[in-house]
Design goal:
six-stranded mixed sheet; binds 5'-O-[(R)-(carboxyoxy)(hydroxy)phosphoryl]adenosine; binds zinc ion; 12 helices; single chain; alpha/beta
Length: 382
């Protein structure tokens, strides 16, 4: 069964065709990042207009690439993200999908964006059969972490498609915490990839001397909610994170150390990916901030893994691209004897393949209900 997936929940206009929920036959992503960069964040009105301008081109390209793989292939259904996300952005994808489904005479499935991120480790490309043959059920029960610009949530998946929320952020999502810090430090948008690259170069500058690198970091707060509270938002406090204290600590540091953002020309500098450079001191602060986020996420993950009896640990969402987070979470899972599952980097950010793939397994909003569906900007999972 070939499903065309459409994704427009934020700043990527994306479409893909996926066979039987696993095999990606085409995947087209148009990113709007350059349009939002001057504003330091996603502007919903700009996102919506750009989706309107690009959606036909992106869908047409996804279908024509699919035809290159399967000249006589047929699209059997259309799947689309209906939430969570930015309302004016979601509307563009949902309406396009409804129109396509009706004109092609195929069913439409409405999909939860966060749930789709958690399906990404199971995506495979034509020619690689790594996961294509393993039944997803064989990885259950699983602990799953959705970590993106809007979410930092831990779920227990007892069966595929059955989610129980175990923990979450009480304020900013991890991606938001990265982006806000990058804005404060004049590193540009989106901040996550920049911070990742700078922190990587900083760590590499210590060679194999892990201890000296660790000792050089600023002791920022580790994302713990208020002390002495045992339950927050109905969840155990030790399964919740809060990044507001960390953000404030960074702001205070910047206010106290003016030279961080206005360094003298003879300050030592560090080159990072793409030939750009920052002062060594700024790199140290950026690395300390990243380490605080990674440490908080790893702590909660360890707690959850110790409490449950899981076969795998799944991570999905844009922040799962973070190289240090991947390294630490992989080790955390393996130390607990649990298989670590994450997507290929190209499927970590927003894409249509994850929407098409999940729809094969989860057709919970279909038929007339899907055709009548409205967007659900605050849609939750679990
Ligand atoms: O999943 P995604 O593409 O969109 C949402 O559903 O939110 O995630 C976007 C988020 C942004 O906050 C971006 O800064 C973050 O993912 N991100 C990263 C990295 N790459 C993207 N954060 C940390 N390190 C990265 N390498
Ligand atoms: Zn996303």
């Amino acid at each position: 069964m070939n499903i065309l997936g459409i994704e427009t929940s934020c700043d990527e206009t994306a479409a893909a065709v996926v066979k039987d929920g696993r095999s990606v036959l085409s995947n087209v992503v148009y990113t709007q990042i350059p349009l939002h960069r001057p504003y330091g964040g996603v502007v919903p009105e700009i996102a919506s207009r750009a989706h309107v301008e690009k959606i036909s081109e992106v869908v047409t390209e996804a279908i024509s690439k699919f035809r290159e793989c399967e000249p006589d292939g047929k699209i059997d259904a259309v799947a689309v993200t209906y939430g969570p996300g930015l309302s004016p952005a979601l509307i563009v994808g949902l309406n396009a999908a409804k129109g396509l489904a009706v004109s092609m005479g195929v069913p439409i499935y409405c999909i939860n964006h966060i749930e789709a991120h958690l399906h990404t480790p199971f995506l495979s490309d034509v020619g690689d059969d790594v996961y294509a043959s393993c039944p997803i059920e064989s990885k259950m029960p699983a602990l799953a972490l959705a970590i993106s610009g809007g979410h930092t949530n831990w779920f227990e998946l007892s069966n595929y498609g059955s989610y129980r929320l175990l923990g979450q952020t009480l304020d900013d999502a991890a991606g938001e915490a990265f982006d806000k810090a990058a804005k404060l430090l004049n590193l540009g948008y989106p901040g996550g990839p920049k911070i990742d690259s700078i922190a990587k170069a900083y760590r590499a500058s210590f060679g194999e001397d892990f201890r000296r690198w660790k000792d050089s970091l600023e002791p920022f707060p580790k994302g713990c909610p208020r002390e002495g509270v045992s339950v927050l938002a109905g969840l155990p406090a030790d399964m919740c994170v809060s990044f507001s204290g960390l953000k404030t600590a960074l702001l205070r540091y910047v206010q106290k150390h003016h030279e961080l953002l206005s360094p003298s020309p003879d300050e030592p500098r560090l080159e990072y990916k793409g030939g750009e450079s920052v002062t060594l001191e700024l790199a140290r602060i950026v690395s300390s901030y990243q380490e605080a986020i990674v440490g908080a996420v790893a702590d909660r993950t360890r707690t959850a893994l110790k409490r449950g009896d899981y076969k795998s640990f799944i991570i999905g969402g844009g922040v799962s691209l973070n190289s240090r987070l991947r390294e630490v979470l992989k080790r955390t899972a393996e130390n607990e004897g649990v298989e670590f599952l994450t997507a290929k980097p190209k499927y970590c950010g927003d894409n249509g393949a994850m929407i098409a793939a999940l729809a094969y397994y989860r057709r919970n909003l279909t038929g007339e209900d899907a055709l009548a569906a409205d967007v659900s900007p605050s849609l939750e999972l679990g």
